[in-house]
Amino acid sequence: MGRVLLAGILSGLAVFGWGVVSWMALPLHINALHNLPQDQAAADAFLGQFPESGVYHYPGMPSGPAGQAPTAAEMEAAFERMEAGPHVSLMVVHPHGSTPMPPRNFIIGLLLHVVAATMIAGLLSICADSLPRFGQRFGFVLCFGGFVILFHYLHETLWWGYPLEFAIATIVDIAAGSMLIGLITAALIRPAPRAPETES
């Protein structure tokens, strides 16, 4: 249990550190995010139309009267507007402002990394006896990163239409984090030593 917790803490710190480097020192994410036009008055007028914080898309899906499902004609018209553009598939808006990079987000983010890495270390410890070589244990952990990319992130990319540069930035983060967790946990979580065989 001690090695599992140690592996989780060290891995969580390593992944958190990678996130700092990825966002602040590398051009991965900066190049993938684009600002709205810098006309402050126009931007404020546009964003002031949003009633509350939330996730928005434009032109959006039609909603029928009194909660009824939209008609086929309404759906067809909405799809035509999306194809003609402009079309915003996903946008998070805080019309009344929000604190950029609050300290508690860093603390919670670090704790989430530690908890997730500890879970991986715990699973690896269960399977360690059947994974005697370092490369096997490292590969075991990498599979979890691949699972997240394939099952969740690429699925989101498919439906929300993330641009390639945006998708690549996040995939690199997931892959790098998985590699760091794999290196640390594979080194610390090893098979239990076998008892020496006694001669009969």
Q: State the helix count.
A: 6
Number of strands: 2
The chain-level structural class is mainly alpha
Mean pLDDT across residues: 87
Count of folded domains? 2
User: Strands across the major sheet, in which order?
Assistant: 1-2
pLDDT < 50 stretches: none
Q: Give the overall form.
A: elongated
Main pleated sheet: 2 strands, antiparallel
Helix content: 55-70%
Q: What's the N-to-C terminus distance?
A: 35 Å
Task: Please explain how this structure is put together.
This protein has 200 residues and is mostly helical. It has 2 domains: 2-34 and 100-188, no CATH class; 54-93, no CATH class. It has 6 helices and 2 strands, in the order ααβαβααα. It has helices at residues 2-24, 40-47, 72-84, 103-127, 134-160, 164-188; strands at residues 54-58, 88-93. It has a two-stranded antiparallel ribbon. Helix 1 runs antiparallel to helix 6 (164-188) and helix 5 (134-160) packs antiparallel against helix 6 (164-188). The model has no long low-confidence stretch (mean pLDDT 87).
